[in-house]
Amino acid sequence: MTLGNRPRYFLSFVVEIQPEILPQTDNSVGIDLGIKTFATFSDGTKIDAPKPLKKRIK
Questions:
Q1: pTM for this model (two decimals)
Q2: Per DSSP, which regions of 1-58 are E strands?
Q3: Domain that residue 43 falls in
């Protein structure tokens, strides 16, 4: 832990874990990241862009 010039604290740590091995499947997905629509998936699902992003683009 370190203390900076201002009264802020910073803490970092490292953890070693064994990742869980998932079964292999034939499922896959494509993701198109855009501006008007934040993300469009290959199955047609769309995620709208967050409002702050829309305001900054205009």
A1: 0.44
A2: 2-3, 9-10, 31-33, 37-41, 46-48
A3: 30-58
Mapped onto helix, strand or coil, the DSSP state of residue 7 is coil
Q: How many domains does the chain have?
A: 1
- On whether residue 21 sits in a domain, the answer given is no
Q: What are phi and psi of 14, to 5 degrees?
A: -120, 135
Query: How many CA atoms lie within 13 Å of 16's alpha carbon, on the beta-carbon side?
Result: 0
Looking up tokens 């934040």 gives 38
pLDDT at 8 exceeding the cut of 90: no
Q: Are 53 and 47 in contact (CB under 8 A)?
A: no
The Cα 24–Cα 21 span in angstroms is 9
Average pLDDT, the chain: 82
